[in-house]
Amino acid sequence: MNEVSCPKQATAVIHDKIGDFKPKVGLILGSGLGGLADHIEDATSIPFADLPGFPLSSVSGHVGHLVTGYLKGMPVACLRGRVHSYEGVKPEKIKILVRTLKLLGCESLILTNAAGSLDPSIGPGSLMMITDHINFQPSNPLIGQNDDEYGPRFIGMEDAYDVDLRTQILATAKSLNIPLERGVYMAVLGPSFETPAEIKAFSLLGANAVGMSTVPEVIVARHCGLKVAVISAITNLAAGLSEEKITHEGTLYHAQQASHSMTRLITTLMERLS
Ligand code: HPA
Description:
This protein is an alpha/beta fold. Helices cover about 30% and strands about 25% of the residues.
């Protein structure tokens, strides 16, 4: 069992449960942002434990289920609960998750995450659409033998964040009067939060937000040809930019505060795209 065969086996298990239902959009929901999955209609929920090769997340705020169904008419497959490199989860697991979405028929992948803001004027509760990233994690999920049946050895990342999806997301936010920032996401390994000196350095490098997830999934998704969009819920000002201490509990609290607008934004986007 590996990252080539597991997605096929997981897809077979999922098909046993959902018949010929074919999701068009994959969703991966971040810390404290899983509530969007509750809006999926005609839902079928499958625990990760039932899916060959799927990882079991250990972080509070992450419940490992794959949920299929309709979000405002759009057939979706949603990974509720993600895994992070800092849990010691191998990058192969991230390949299995994302490639299963691809094999199920998804054409796009929309991800949410919790992130710290490097801009003091963009505080907790804000939403930021990611326009580009800096991979500051000391790894890449595509390291190792290339899995040719999913994608080529070398892939370009100039257009990692799909321009059409970004246009649709901006228009949706505007129609709902939801302020939506745009920025560059810096992916760090964690699990320690950053030092103020690191945040100062990341700012100089061009980052607007920082977090411990997403970029591995984006890389795997682009490798297998999924279109990608990412929306971050800003849960705190990054280290050194505020008096407030950064904690996981605070992250979950502020993600929950942002989750209402996040849910409205993504459900309305699904309505618009379906
Ligand atoms: N740093 C890294 N990851 C995060 C942060 C942060 O400040 N906030 C939420 N996730």
